[in-house]
Hints:
This protein is of the alpha/beta class and 314 residues long.
Amino acid sequence: xxxxxxxxxxxxxxxxxxxxxxxxxxxxxxxxxxxxxxxxxxxxxxxxxxxxxxxxxxxxxxxxxxxxxxxxxxxxxxxxxxxxxxxxxxxxxxxxxxxxxxxxxxxxxxxxxxxxxxxxxxxxxxxxxxxxxxxxxxxxxxxxxxxxxxxxxxxxxxxxxxxxxxxxxxxxxxxxxxxxxxxxxxxxxxxxxxxxxxxxxxxxxxxxxxxxxxxxxxxxxxxxxxxxxxxxxxxxxxxxxxxxxxxxxxxxxxxxxxxxxxxxxxxxxxxxxxxxxxxxxxxxxxxxxxxxxxxxxxxxxxxxxxxxxxxxxx
Length: 314
């Protein structure tokens, strides 16, 4: 029997010029991206098209144009992909009258797993819900419902896991546990894409980011590298040295810096030519006999990068 390429690949999801519209409303517009093994954060303001994109990747929504593939095979109307994909939607997709055990066990049976009870028990244990598995879901807190949804998505041990705001409603301990679980699964070689509006979560878990703005693909990659490619925006640095005033005077004389100011913490420098500034700073300090103690970017955190990306352009 020939094995399907869908089930033998690493779990690479590719979108090629994908769009999705509802009447006159364009939710996703001409998006091309590749999501491979590891953890990727999907970012964007409310209404940017994140949920629509995840649903197309999961095979629950057809692209209006373009193609979505898993391991080179079309996702839409391809039942084979459900062996490899798990989806945790943002909306409540649970039945309150079921217990957590019944809900996850039903997912295992739908996947026709050889040992559905063993698979359900393992998935519930992964998300630390074994102790509450016999309670009805309607008695669960928001965080518990989130975790049982994750268990149902993991029950068939998927290669690709798509998570839409998975940490919503969780208390700090639950959030840390699920973040560690997601990070560990990414290290094991699974392909994980999760959306979140809490940037600190993405910063701690994801190896790279994909950013959607108004349905368009705005940026892709490590957010620090994305920031460094933004040559049209000044880069902000904090510099501490053995003689801040002398160093400030030397930096102001060069066109790579648009502003240099003295603060209690040292110098704050706006570098308009990032490459020249990073090349120039150590040489200027050496030439004037000043020792550099600290050079650190102050706007390379994910929050700053995200703010730059979604800001309106003139």
